[in-house]
Write a structure and sequence with these properties.
Elements: E1 20-25, E2 28-33, H1 38-44, E3 51-52, E4 59-60, E5 73-76, E6 79-83, E7 94-96, H2 132-146, E8 161-165, E9 169-172, H3 176-186, E10 192-195, E11 211-212, E12 221-222, H4 223-235, E13 240-243, E14 247-252, E15 256-261, E16 264-268, E17 272-275, E18 279-281, E19 294-296, H5 297-306, E20 314-319, H6 323-333, E21 337-343, H7 347-356, E22 366-368, E23 370-376, E24 383-388, E25 396-399, E26 402-406, E27 409-411, H8 414-420, E28 424-429, E29 432-436, E30 444-445, E31 448-453, H9 463-480, H10 486-504
Parallel strand pairs: 1-7, 8-16, 9-10, 9-17, 10-13, 17-31, 19-26, 20-21, 20-26, 21-22
Antiparallel strand pairs: 1-2, 3-4, 5-6, 5-7, 11-12, 14-15, 15-16, 18-27, 23-24, 24-25, 28-29, 30-31
Bound molecules: FE2/S2 (inorganic) cluster.
Length: about 500
């Protein structure tokens, strides 16, 4: 068994470690390398429980690594509720866990799990209110049990500066489709403002080593290389302003878009808005699906290819979509032993997905027609029970220290629906509906002609599809604002036609 989880050698990536630093976690010193996140450094040092759930204080481990869940909230340098999976480690940082006593590993409040049968959903709303004099005593107790963190040690060093701007085109999200929209729009001469939640452009694709076809005529390229090249082009544009580490979080009266960034609060009045906010990977439904050691496919890519850390030594991959096979291949490349790929689809589909990603055979045994029944373990995963989809089959136990779930995704399009309150609900899997926007062929949202939706935020799963959508939306937005003439019009029509072909392929 390999105890050191740091990847030193990789068949695709050039591994380069930053300067060695250290920080304090709950009073002990933890080693990190510059460029790593706090979560990754803690994981490499053996930490598996990062927080506790509100109610039963169940252990919570790294799950999404993308700032989308609440599993990794910690206090960093006196600031509560920092998502340490997105927080870079720095020399001398003080990191403290929250909402667990006496420790994250052994939390006394977790004993409530043993009496969970007494505490039904909604229980807290109609208990503890009588006698009235006792209410405030219960209030303190419940606050301590369920609250997350305590107030920050000090006020922010500088007040937030309020700024206003009226850019011609605002693109929200700097992943593949957003960058494609920026490049297309900016090349017509339009003035573009790009809002990106993370410190680096590229979105999830920057951690993905799988190959993609960006053009029907070209041979496949690696996703992270494609997006890195696009990000460099966007950074070099004179007519594109980029707000990094910034979140567009709401629409206000008179169609003002609110954006919060480091020390800044922006009130934007865009001429056109392109929503390229990506998607959320969600958990699969099976017993014990919240155990530490269970990751989404995207989380593993960030951990292995962003922080150069393996999640463990023995992994099971649960695949509802082909992306699970790409994740399995990447686990093998990172030196993880893939014990099995569990996929409820039929044998032919599973074999063809495995062959397409080069993971068939001894690399990763296939369990086609099987589904996850439950995860085994108390503080972290030790294995899974799987069972055949068809009734009457035998349940199997598979030991592992990592479980990768690659299932359906939900478009991250809240901003779009805050403005339009419209969309279509689509059944993505047997457990999950997602809400997708209704768009015209030029990617314009049906109920708001100044907004466009592209990429995964629009329900797209394919890369070529997302790139073309970005291109169509960027050109359409620019044409709306009288940038470009018949040439750009022609380019847009051509891209719309290509999009139809990709859709049909
Ligand atoms: S937000 Fe950090 S693991 Fe999900």
């Amino acid at each position: 068994m390999k105890n050191n989880l740091r990847i030193t050698d990789h068949p695709i990536l050039d591994i380069q470690k930053g300067r060695r630093i250290s920080f304090q976690f709950n009073g002990r010193s933890v080693t990190a390398y510059e460029g790593e996140t706090i979560a990754a450094a803690l994981y490499a040092s053996g930490v598996r429980i990062f927080s506790r759930s509100f109610k039963y204080h169940r252990p919570r481990g790294l799950f999404c690594m993308a700032g989308h869940c609440s599993n990794c909230l910690m206090r960093v340098d006196g600031v509560p509720n920092v998502r340490v999976c997105r927080e870079p480690a720095h020399q001398g940082a003080e990191v403290v866990s929250q909402n667990a006593w006496p420790s994250l590993t052994f939390d006394l409040a977790a004993l409530t799990g043993y009496v969970s049968f007494l505490v039904r959903p909604g229980f807290q709303y109609h208990r503890f209110i009588r006698p009235r004099w006792a209410y405030h005593i219960w209030e303190k107790f419940l606050r301590r049990m369920a609250g997350i963190g305590t107030l920050a040690d000090s006020k922010p060093a500088a007040p937030t500066i309020r700024k206003t701007a009226s850019p011609e085109i605002v693109v929200i999200g700097g992943g593949l489709s957003g960058l494609s929209a920026v490049l297309s729009a900016a090349r017509t001469g339009a003035e573009v403002l790009l809002v990106e939640r993370e410190a680096v452009l590229g979105g999830r694709a920057q951690y993905d080593t799988s190959k993609i076809k960006v053009n029907l005529e070209n041979s496949p390229l690696r996703r992270f290389e494609v997006v890195r090249d696009m990000a460099e082009q966007v950074e070099a544009l004179d007519n594109c302003r980029i707000l990094k580490n910034s979140t567009a979080f709401a629409w206000y009266d008179e169609d003002i878009l609110a954006v919060s960034g480091p020390g800044e609060f922006w009130e934007l009045k865009p001429g056109r808005t392109i929503i390229a906010t990506g998607c959320y990977e969600h958990p699969m439904i099976f017993g014990n699906n919240d155990l530490p050691g269970i990751f989404t496919a995207g989380a593993l890519q960030r951990l292995m290819h962003g922080d150069n850390i393996r999640p463990g030594n023995r992994a099971v991959v649960a695949a509802q979509v082909d992306e699970g096979y790409a994740a399995a291949k990447q686990l093998v490349e990172a030196g993880v032993n893939v014990i099995g790929i569990v996929d409820s689809r039929n044998k032919e589909t599973v074999l063809s997905a495995a062959n397409a990603h080069g993971v068939a055979g001894a690399d990763a045994p296939l369990f086609s027609g099987y589904t996850l029944k439950s995860a085994i373990g108390r503080r972290s995963i030790r294995g899974v029970y799987i069972e055949p989809v068809k009734a009457g089959g035998k349940k199997l136990k598979v030991s592992c220290d990592t479980l990768c779930v690659a299932g359906a995704k939900t478009p991250a399009n809240e901003l779009l629906f805050q403005r339009t309150c419209e969309g279509t609900y689509v059944l993505e899997s047997e457990h999950q509906f997602t809400r997708k926007p209704n768009v015209l062929p030029d990617m314009r949202v049906v109920s708001a002609d100044d907004m466009f939706a592209v990429g995964a935020a629009c329900g797209s799963q394919g890369t070529e599809h997302a790139l073309l959508q970005g291109k169509v939306a960027g050109l359409s937005a620019a044409l709306d604002l009288a940038h470009g003439g018949s040439e750009i019009e022609q380019a847009r029509e051509q891209a719309v036609e290509q999009l139809k072909d990709v859709r049909g392929s």
